Structures are given as C-alpha cells and as structure tokens.
C-alpha cells in the first residue's frame, strides 16, 4: 500500500491544462493532442499517482508530452473516483515540519489521510484493477492505436502497472499492449520479480532517497534491467536523481529551481524515450 510520502508535494496552479475530457472505451480520460492538429506520432498513456487523473500536475505533464513529441496523450481514470483528495497534498507536506507541527495536528492529518488511502487501495487492488487496465489497453490497441505505437508512463501508484504492462502479459493481433514504457519513482514494485519480467523497453527516473523503492531495491532493479540490455533481451534505461523526494517528477515545487530542473530532466527523459520507440 502507498504511504504518506506518496502524497507529499506541490499542487501546480501556475499553468492551466489545455486538453479536453472525453470517455474512451468506457473510461473517463483527459486527452492532450499534439500541436497544430497534426496526426499523432504515437499514443502515450499516463497512469497517474494516487491523486488520480484530475490532478493538474498530471494534466500539465500530458500537455507537455503532447507538445514536445507530437503525441496523443491520454490520462485514464482507473480509480473509479477513489483517488486521494488534492487537498491532502499540503498538510502531508507539513508532516515533516518539526515541532511546530504538533502531535494533535499530526493526528488530524493522519485521520484525514488514512481513510481515503485505504479506500483507494481496496478499490484498486490487483484483481479488480488489472483486468480493467489490460482490457482498456486491448481496446486502445484495436482501435485508436491500430496503426500507431503505444507508450505508457506511470508515477507512484501508476508505476506498478507500468511494470506489469512491460512484462508483455497479453497480445492483440501479435502486438504487445504497449511498445515502450517509462516510470518515475514507482511504488509497490515487487523486487526482483517485476524487474525480471520486463520484456518491453523500459526507462526509469529514480531518486536515491526514495522511500517506496529504496536505493538498495532500486539498485537491484537497475542491475537486472542493465543485464537485460547488455544481453540483448530488452533495452532499458535507468537514471538516478539525487536529493529528490518521492514524487519529484510530478509534484515538484515549481518555485524551487533545482527541483524544477530535475523534473524537467525526467520529463525530457520520457519524451526522448517515446520518440525513440514510438516514431515510425
């Protein structure tokens, strides 16, 4: 289950998302189209963090992917309305503010945080969520992506699903559900099995001080993926970031220059990965 660090960060209000909402294969989606109405170079699907498909940060990132790569970018709602409330971002960030943040206030924040977290965990447990996600990707492959390649991105909560999709679990017309994958600070990764199962090109942005996937476990994942690359089984990429908390690629403080620069590096890492594997 995700922990408090999965909800720390900053809500982005400095930029307004420019995409649109629609319903695709029975699921609500945010859609960011490429510039100038040009046909997309591929489709990228973002599986969000615990704040779900409506978090402005995620939608802004989708807009950036679409603009930089000429992709159609989709952010589907797989949480059935059980995402963490966006109001939880600020108080959880204050949980680390020392003695000023009294024990009573800590208890109040915990009581605000724990119920929706358990609700999210229950309603997105694997036996419920996995068939929904896989079936949606099948429909996407058969329709919008019939002649396009698909990339997937996942952050925090979405990271575990990136690993499962990168395992090439099912095929549609001989094609994998996704052609390449990227994840930033994934949570709930089963080490080493998830890394061993990767068969699709995978790129990862990871902090050395991340808590859901601590450095020793992340290093184990990296070693497995680099061995896959070296042996020619599957090309992978792993980029370390220092002094960045969990969530840095999505919930960074836009007024902190160093944080914003690292988030931009992670964003460009993903875009270049998609250009490499999705362009035809």
Descriptive report:
The structure is a single chain. By secondary structure, this protein is an alpha/beta fold. It has a single domain, classed as Rossmann fold. It contains eight helices and ten strands. It has helices at about 55-70, 90-95, 105-125, 125-140, 155-165, 195, 215-230, 255-280, and strands at about 20-25, 25-30, 45, 70-75, 150-155, 170, 175, 180-185, 200-205, 235-240. The chain has an eight-stranded mixed beta sheet, sandwiched between helices. The protein has a two-stranded antiparallel sheet with strand order 6-7. A hairpin with a 2-residue loop joins strand 6 and strand 7. The longest helix is centred in the last third of the chain and has 22 residues, at about 255-280. The protein starts with 19 loop residues before the first strand and ends with a helix. The mean pLDDT is about 90.
Provide a brief overview of the structure.
The chain has 280 residues and is of the alpha/beta class.
Features:
280 residues, alpha/beta, Rossmann fold, eight-stranded mixed sheet, 10 strands, 39% helix, globular, Alpha/beta-hydrolase, hydrolase activity
Biggest beta sheet attributes: 8 strands, mixed
From the N-terminal CA to the C-terminal CA, the straight-line distance is 38 Å
**N-to-C SSE series?**
EEEHEHHHEHEEEHEHEH
Shape category: globular
The order of strands across the largest sheet is 1-2-4-3-5-8-9-10
The CATH topology annotation reads as Rossmann fold
Strand content: 15-25%
CATH architecture: 3-Layer(aba) Sandwich
Please identify which CATH superfamily we are dealing with.
Alpha/Beta hydrolase fold, catalytic domain
C-alpha-based Rg, rounded? 18 Å
Q: How many domain regions? A: 1
Low-confidence stretches: none
Number of helices: 8
Judged by helices, strands and strand pairing, the structural class is alpha/beta
Mean of residue pLDDT?
A: 90
Protein name: Alpha/beta-hydrolase
GO molecular function: hydrolase activity
Keywords: Hydrolase
Organism: Aulographum hederae CBS 113979
